[in-house]
Amino acid sequence: MGVLDVDVDPEEVGFDAGRLARVDSHFRRYVDDGRLPGWSIAVARRGRVAHVAHYGDRDVEAGLPVEPDTVWRIFSMTKPITSVAALMLYEEGLLGLTDPVSRYIPSFAEQRVYRSGSALAPATDPISEPMRVWHLLTHTSGLTYGFHHAHPVDEMYRLRGHELTTPEGMDLATACDQFASIPLLFQPGTEWNYGVSTDVLGRVVEVASGMSLDRFLAERILGPLGMTDTAFQVADGATDRLATLYAARPGGGLVPSPLGELITKPPTLLAGGAGLASTLHDYHRFTQMLAGGGALDGVRLLGNRTLAFATRNHLPGGVDLETIGRPIFAESTYAGVGFGLGFSVVIDPTVGEQLTSVGEFAWGGLASTAFYVDPVEDVTAVLMTQLMPSSTYPLRPQLRALVMQALVD
């Protein structure tokens, strides 16, 4: 168990301490107004922790405060970790970015693409381009999520039991075969759509490495980085530190979500796109590895050239998500933001009116957790909280702006 502490005066790394305090005062209002249960935030620069703060409750009903070691469900902040796992195997020659996914999951060899019709009677076309590993990393695969409720293909996922949860007892291999049996939303590489791509990538990691995804992550990433509280299940000894998962109540307020209990049970499906719980300390460690060009404290997971390549915009034609992305919920603008190999990547901050740097890479989770790495300013920030959905409030752009305005060097 690790606890994150400030290890440098903000002024030593270019922050104005008074302006940095605006981060806390702003996000405290969310708790005081009843919009968030509680939160933890960490800001670092040049590898030094300049700011750590905790506020509110991890369990509102029980009156239990957020603590430095509180455990949070990070949902889609699992995706960058799984993407790093795939990139490590790429560096080892165990998979290729242009490899067809069917090389690792044969059921994807006969994929079809939706053309028209209902979820019960779709008309489909043959695939014109094999789905490749890089399509999974960039979410240009044509896969989707059942919870989008935006297209007949989304409904096909729901009809098979894939929405915010998956059918009880189903493992990752079986789920991937089921995804392969459902038509794609579009031809791979032609559009961007958020979906189960990173779950499928997790299965590719399993096949390519010969290890289960939980074992690979534990032995190759989480253990070496000292992320001892990050796992697909919160162990019995840590459940008292687990934050309650809340949903936004229509009309205002918070209501506990029944989905919150799932993280305390042994998972049958190792969801590389959404399955981990973590702590502020642990995810800060992961961001420092990213900010450090793939290495932290003498442990190198990726070569710095690989990480630089992964955090460039890989969308076809170099366009942004606004141009190529399907219009689904998002708390941040798609304008001026591209997508790399597992991360969003800022192309032009002015297009989306975001106070950040070109090349900033980031992602967040369904329960409003978020992180970003700004390689120009050498800044990282992590926000932990537990409110679904993440589109409820504009927490991510506010965090960026509040941190950036505090830089005065």
Automatic annotation (TrEMBL):
Keywords: Hydrolase. Residues 23-403 form the Beta-lactamase-related domain. The keyword Hydrolase applies. GO terms for molecular function: hydrolase activity. It holds the Pfam family Beta-lactamase. Coiled coil: none annotated. InterPro entries: Beta-lactam-related, Beta-lactam/transpept-like, Diverse_Enzym_Activities. This is Serine hydrolase.
